[in-house]
Amino acid sequence: MFRDRREAAEHLIDRLSYLKTENPLILAIPRGAVPMGRWMADALNGELDVVLVRKVGAPSNPEYAIGAIDENGRVALEPAAAYYREEAVNREVEHQQALIEERRRRYTPVRSAIDPRGRIVVVVDDGSATGATMAAALTALRARDPRRLIAALGAAPPETVARLEALADEVICLETSRDFRAVGQFFADFGQVEDDEVIALLGRNHG
Predict the structure, then answer these.
(1) Where does the record place the Phosphoribosyltransferase domain (predicted)?
(2) What global pTM score does this model have?
């Protein structure tokens, strides 16, 4: 178990220390991973931005991912989505797309997303259960021609790591457990990260 997200970020920094001379682009999945991304970008002499993807939750259980949507509106549904009414799934997709658009306006109001083309890109999240959101992020970024695409996570089950290995050039997952119930089980302190903190972290210079 990690003390908090900072400890997880420090372990990821150790694993990625070879990138310090490469000006990596650290893309955090909001909101929980943004503090991790800030620490990583500062330590690795990189840039920080967010990659805006949202889980598509089951209509009857929003915490259960039946897919994900990226900032370009690309939707990737899991096989489980077939068990729900198409109209209900579409409403959830539209809701998540609206949230993505609102977050971009709030998080980076004076600039557009940083272009990953030709960059070494590290996508960071505190953890992932199904991998749906991280997979959507990796797929969206791969289409934009990064030089190298790395997924960095605090915790995930083995089947999720295997899924992501098919989409990234490298996957670093600090804790891989078959007894995976929720990301929070791997952190002693797993407090909520609020929008104001995300905005402040994204607006800060290195160091």
Answers:
(1) 9-181
(2) 0.90
